[in-house]
Design goal:
Keywords: Lipoprotein, Signal. The chain is an alpha/beta fold and about 325 residues long. The chain contains twelve helices and ten strands. Helix 2 crosses helix 9.
Length: about 325
């Protein structure tokens, strides 16, 4: 009997050791460590998303072992609604939009800057109407400027004019949310001034509008586009998102090195208007980096002052620096 019990114990010990070895040698296969987690990315037909379109055209996602679907939207509002609904995992947006998404209950994190690592990237222009007599920034004091309220457009307008020495009370604005209508009202002299991003700013110049301030020609960096992702997507698909950021950055670097190669794609995907398609300059992208705390704080402080936020978020609540490592 004693010999039988000993035999049972030996078998149990052997079995335990075997299963223990199996557990130790079995590869860990969590979502954290896999690249084949599908990623849905919301895109607009603007130059910020051009590296995504390049990567798609050249099969870079597949070469990196990624399953990426680019989902187009006609407006930023539609794209952001899809992010809030969990229909997409990430998008290229701006710092104001990122903070508003978080305030609305969608926890997001910024992985990196796309355009705007330097002031020379991501052009926004304050323009005077062709029929106005405005030629200097001082002449815009108390003049209503067409903007999209509570957006990066209004933020940039305020920063440009405050930087030019305006008092807050001297900055007047009129809300024209849709950019094509803002362009039309400016060039038809229905407003005296407007803020527009490229390529619409370049088209406005072509149609006679005058540049008053070009944000690529000032020292302070007031406009940045960023890649952002839902926090729950990062938790489940971190490895895939990190690789996606690398693929985006590589495509952006290829575009910067060889803009002529990708010019047809730029004209098609960024919807460059016909009157400027032969002269419009291709965007350049810097080495990927995260927003500085100073730049982020400037945006958040403006939003608190505008009562768009109740309080300022911390840097770690907005940015996940590990996604670039």
């Amino acid at each position: 009997m004693k010999r039988f019990v000993i035999s049972i114990l030996v078998c149990l010990i052997a079995f335990t050791g075997l299963t223990g070895c199996q557990k130790a040698t079995t590869p860990k296969s969590t979502a954290e460590n896999t690249l084949n987690q599908p990623l849905n990315i919301g895109v607009l037909f603007i130059e910020d998303n051009l590296p995504f379109f390049i990567a798609e055209q050249e099969g870079a996602f597949e070469k990196a072992g990624l399953k990426v679907k680019l989902i187009p939207f006609q407006s930023a509002a539609e794209r952001d609604a899809a992010l809030q609904a969990g229909q997409i995992d990430g998008e290229a947006a701006d710092l104001v939009a990122a903070a508003l998404l978080k305030k609305g209950g969608t926890d997001v994190r910024i992985s990196s800057i796309t355009l705007g690592a330097t002031p020379q990237e991501g052009r926004f222009v304050l323009l005077a109407a062709p029929g106005s007599n405005i030629t200097r920034v001082e002449e815009l004091k108390n003049v209503p400027i067409a903007v999209s309220e509570n957006t990066i457009i209004e933020y940039i307008t305020d920063q440009l004019l405050l930087g030019a020495g305006f008092a807050p009370a001297e900055i007047k604005k009129i809300s024209v949310p849709k950019m094509p209508i803002r362009l039309q009202m400016l060039t038809n002299n229905q407003v005296k001034a407007a803020l527009l991003p490229d390529p619409l700013a370049s088209l406005a110049e072509k149609q006679g509008a005058r540049v008053i301030i070009d944000d690529t020609k000032i020292k302070t960096n007031v406009s940045q586009v960023v890649l952002l992702f839902r926090k729950d997507a990062i938790d489940k698909k971190r490895a895939a998102i990190k690789k996606l950021v690398q693929v985006y950055s590589e495509a952006a670097r290829n575009l910067t090195k060889n803009p002529a190669k990708y010019r047809p794609l730029l004209i098609e995907k960024a919807k460059i208007p016909d009157p400027i398609k032969d002269t419009y300059k291709s965007p350049t992208f810097s080495k990927p980096t995260v927003p500085s705390k100073e730049d982020l704080d400037r945006v958040l402080n403006w939003m608190v002052g505008k009562k768009l936020l109740d309080k300022k978020y911390s840097y770690d609540e907005m940015v996940d620096v590990s996604l670039l490592k």
